[in-house]
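User: For my dataset I need records formatted as: sequence, then structure tokens, nothing else. Please produce one.
Assistant:
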Amino acid sequence: MNAKTHDNLDSQTSATSVGKPAASVSGIEKWKDPKRYLWLLGPALPGIGLAALAGYAVAPKKLKALAWTGPALVHGIIPALDRAIGEDKSNPPESAVAPLEQDKYYSRIVKAFIPSQYAMTVLGAWLASRKNTPIEDKIGLTLTVGAINGVGINTAHELGHKSNKLNKLMAMAALAPTGYTHFVVEHNFGHHKRVATPEDPASSRMGESFWKFLPRTVLGGMKSSVNIERARLERKGKSFWSLENELLQGWAMSAGFFGATTLVCGPRAVPFLAAQAVYGASLLESVNYIEHYGLLRQKDDNGKYVRTQPEHSWNSNHIVTNLFLYQLQRHSDHHAHPQRSYQALRHFEKAPQLPGGYASMLLPAYVPQWWYETMDKRVIDHYEGDLSKINWDPDRKAGLVAKYADYAAEVAAKAAARREEASGSASEKAA
């Protein structure tokens, strides 16, 4: 990120600092993170899942509903809390960022997710592999474990951006139950390089349904990770089959976890393990679909994409989802500063905002017409009616350009009027 980009990002911080402008904070000792203990909701999630499965194990008939705890949380309870509690646009003052980054409390919170994640997954496999477990309960158990392991991918996302080798290994450990360990390689060195471009398999295009995006991002991400790791090892003069291959290391961790769980729970655990992994990974790709829908980095005079800016990610300040997802929804700042820890990520007024938190956007993403009605005009509004700036699904571009031509013209006219009015006001003040 160049100096100009850094200035543009940092200039938006002071106006939205927690409680009052950063300038009024006379010392970092006077500012305390108001969400310090609320961040414990992140590692509490697999604990909630573990408790629910334990309750179901004790009384599977009376507490049958506990098998469905995961879907209830992800698609019902968390979105409802988001709507009830609302948004938090506050930022830490700039003077507090360095101390926040250095406070090990926050990294310990992220790592605390993993032990209960593993315990929950093994317990779920054991319950689902019992002969007397009804099929509807097996489905619920699968979705519950898959949902929480899907959130575990976000834990891996936070750890995987740190340069420390232990953090990267723990990131792969969090990914092992979903078999998606290649994410550590592709996300850091593929997605962050190509984000909001047609070349990025993890950036969705306007007019592209989630179901069309899903195979493109899964296959494209896998291919990208192999190419990235092969190139890295070649630069070191090593074979792809070297023990230093991080993809092979991650796949070995997944195989080891699946194998050990199958030994403990028996072969009936295999369908459960496979199904929960697919569902968990699909939640990650659902979030990928949401994060950059239709957004496009433009090219400069040299034909190169401009650096990533706040305008290239959809953001949300809905506080409950942000607490569970380590502020992943402040996605613009994450792409500007990939190694910045979650507790220090900032809100930017100029970043495009979603109508709800990520959890609230999952169900619309699964229903193409619902999604298009929710998001397509927002993309056009974001680009002030300039349809040439949108990342289009090439198969649907012509039809959608024709469909939205009149709406885009109205938006462009209103935007031009606003600019003219702002210019006139500026001229009057100068005079």
